[in-house]
Amino acid sequence: MKKLLVYSSLFLFSSIAFGQGFGNIATSDQEGNSNNSTQNQTGIENLSDVAQLGNENTVRLRQRGFSNFAFQSQDGNRNLATVRQLGFGLNVADQLSVGNRNTARIGQFGAGFNLAIQDQDGNRNRARIVQNSLNGGQVIAPNSIQAAAVLPSDYSNEAYQFQNGNRNIARSLQFGDENLMDSQQDGNRNSLGTRQIGEGNEIESIQTGRRNFAGSNFRADVGIIQRGENNYALLIQDGVRNTHLTTQRGFGNESYQDVFGDDNYGEAFQRGEENLADLLQTGDSNSGIIIQRGILNSSIIEQTGIGNIATSTQTGFRNSSYTTQN
């Protein structure tokens, strides 16, 4: 059994800790500008803790093994934090960034119960979650300065992303079944990219502000994508010039888009059987398009305002479509 402890403070510019074996611990604390901390652990039940206060800080964490823990906190501008975990069992990654031009990345791969937390508050922040659970797991990625309490649930993977500020980007990629992603963005020019591949997945997104749109495929410009069966997607946008797109492929999927504002554009695409697409737009100059391919699909479009355009296209058998305009 090895135990490694590294502590650096007050105007230290670099800290590197490497641990290999069973039950390793690496800790780093830095205050100042242009700080850099790198920690690499290989083994079982590893713990890594990094705290930095200043500008242009960089933290890189890499863990391998079972029941690994990684904690990182930065306060300042131009910060970069990356965490990569590979193993089986319980992996936990926690990131907190306060300031402008921050970038936080978490990658978790393995089987079991995985947990990832990201918190960012400021402008031009970027957060990315990539999680692949082979035997059930959990990813929790709130992108906010305040993170809610984490409790075990019935979901395999979970992702919560909260953003408050301008020009923020939140991206999440989940592989597996019964995933949950809940995202809230409050500000201007925010982007959301989400992709879920599996069954019984849920996506809930709320955007408030101007020029917000929901996107996916890790470019945040194509919409919410779900592939599988019995998936659920809810998108709420309140603001001006919002763009919302949702793509679902499979059986028994549900897509809900509620938009309140001006110059909104909505589009939902579903391919499969027994899918439901519901589009609600309240405001002026809104446009809604729903395209469904398969059998036993249903589409509902409700528009209230002036200058709205609604289009519903269905290909297949025994489909139903309802459109209401006031």
Question: How would you characterize this protein structure?
Answer:
The protein has 326 residues and is mainly β. Helix content is 0%, strand content 66%. It is built from no helices and 25 strands. The chain has a 17-stranded parallel beta sheet that branches. An eight-stranded parallel beta sheet has the order 10-12-14-17-19-21-23-25, with no helix packed on it. The radius of gyration is 22 Å and the shape is flat. The N and C termini lie far apart (72 Å). The model is unreliable at 1-13, 136-155 and 216-222 (pLDDT under 50).
Quick structural gist:
The protein is mainly β. Helix content is 0%, strand content 66%.
Topology diagram in text:
Elements: E1 14-22, E2 25-31, E3 36-44, E4 47-53, E5 58-66, E6 69-75, E7 80-98, E8 103-121, E9 126-133, E10 158-164, E11 169-175, E12 180-186, E13 191-197, E14 202-210, E15 213-215, E16 224-229, E17 232-240, E18 243-251, E19 254-262, E20 265-273, E21 276-282, E22 287-295, E23 298-304, E24 309-317, E25 320-325
Parallel strand pairs: 1-3, 2-4, 3-5, 4-6, 5-7, 6-7, 7-8, 8-9, 9-11, 10-12, 11-13, 12-14, 13-15, 13-16, 14-17, 15-18, 16-18, 17-19, 18-20, 19-21, 20-22, 21-23, 22-24, 23-25
Number of strands: 25
Structural class: mainly beta
Strand content: over 45%
Question: What is the string of SSEs from the N terminus onward?
Answer: EEEEEEEEEEEEEEEEEEEEEEEEE
Radius of gyration: 22 Å
Give the terminus-to-terminus CA distance.
Answer: 72 Å
Mean pLDDT: 78
Family: Belongs to the CsgA/CsgB family.
GO biological process, one term: cell adhesion
Pfam families: Curlin_rpt
Signal peptide: 1-19
